[in-house]
Amino acid sequence: MSGFRRFIPYLAALSVLAAVAVTATLASVASAAPPNDTVAAAANRPVSSQSALAAQSAQASASRASAAALASASAAAASASASASASAKAAAAASAAAKAAAAPRDTAGLETAALRAAGVPCDIHAVACVSLSKQEAWLLRDGKVVYGPVHVATGRAGLPTPTGNFHVWYKVVNGWSTTYDAPMPYSVFFYKGDAFHEDPVTVRSHGCVHLSLQNAEYFYHFLHYGDLVEVRR
Predict the structure, then answer these.
(1) How many helices (H) and strands (E) does the chain have?
(2) What kind and span of H or E run contains 139?
(3) Would residue 135 count as lying in a domain?
(4) Which helix (H) or strand (E) holds 15?
(5) d(Cα 48, Cα 111) in Å, to the nearest integer?
(6) Structural domain boundaries, residue 206
């Protein structure tokens, strides 16, 4: 026991030395390690940079996608506009063709070559034809002249015979004009009070078509109710 006591001072010195060594080591480690803020900043810098790069990449991708979508929409709108314009033009052309097809035809302009060669100014559907400029009249059947031309006297100045297409609506052998208190033998009425009838062909009428007695009788028997009468200039 006395021998152990002899080593106590040495053990105490060793303990002190060991404590000093440990303290020195800890101080060295502490001085080598960066402060907590520095470590955090060092750790945060790469993360922030990566986040910024990722955000920039995402924004660029979004911009490219937006530009592509805008270009696609513009192309689609242009295509739709061109298609609508073409459809509108086609519809306008179809409408014009339909109107042209539906337009009424001037039957007075459908003369056949044979009728024109014969000098008849009426179309092939006429049964009686009158020319005011020539003061002549014809009777036709199926577009062919069967009687005429015969000399006539039509309306005077101020009371002209009307031009146009008419139909026989009344016939009377012994006709009488109540307006002018005069006879109208073999009257064939085609327009209101105007008729083919016998009267001097040297005297202009009040709108009727004067015929000689022979011609008036022939017209009376040839023409029937509803027959087309054409009066041309």
Answers:
(1) 4, 9
(2) strand 136-141
(3) yes
(4) helix 2-32
(5) 97
(6) 109-232
pLDDT tens readout for residues 38-84: 434 434 444 445 555 555 665 656 556 555 555 565 555 556 555 65
Please tell me the distance from the alpha carbon of residue 95 to that of residue 92, in angstroms, as a whole number.
5
122: nearest Cα among 168, 171, 163, 169: 163
- Look at the block and give the residue holding tokens 């040839």: 222
Q: pTM of the predicted model, to two decimals?
A: 0.51
pLDDT of 120-152, one tens digit each? 899 889 999 999 999 999 999 988 999 999 999
CATH number at residue 207: 2.40.440.10
- Looking at the domain assignment, is residue 179 inside a domain? yes
137: tokens are 């009249």
- Give the CA count within 13 Å in the CB-facing half-sphere of 110: 10
> Is residue 129 assigned to a domain?
yes
Asked if 205 and 156 count as a contact pair (C-beta separation under 8 A), the reply is: yes
Any idea what DSSP says for residue 205? B
Q: What is the count of structural domains for the chain?
A: 1
